[in-house]
Amino acid sequence: MxxxxxxxxxxxxxxxxxASGLIPDEVSAKAEAAMWKLMEMDPGNSTxxxxxxxSADEYSEDRGVVIFNCNQDSDLMACATEDYLTAxxxxxxxxxxxxxxxxxxxxxxxxxxxxxxxxxxxxxxGIPKEHTHRTFPGPYRITSxxxxxxxxxxxxxxxxxxxxxxxxxxxxxxxENRPVLLM
Length: 183
Known about the structure:
- By secondary structure, the protein is of the alpha+beta class.
- The protein is about 25% helix and about 10% strand.
């Protein structure tokens, strides 16, 4: 088992889990190198860390986030290890070995910016902005993030609101199989 009973219980209680050790160091090192290449940046030259790569699919200027959709780089895809897939199956309550690696990855990379940090607005990952008014729940049962480099506090990592998943579950239970208008 990739996760302990305590980790699974923590996930069920808090709605998120930080889990280390699911990706071997050599795999994550190759994935980090692939991400620097994708971002057209030099990890040793901080002057390259604030420019948007021409090959990016999207750039969110207000968030300073570069987005690549449907990425299939083999070094990035290798992060979906057997331990990772086992952990996801455990969190979903699915049989071990029943999940397959993703067919592609969606990447979001924060650019180095000199702006005052502020808490982001709450949102549900996996529901594109243009669809938040139409349907609920989103298209994903679980969202996972791989951090390929260290993130300082307030440095662009994801914020989680412990326990917020319970409110979402209540909403889904009330409107199962029916569209929900979110305002």
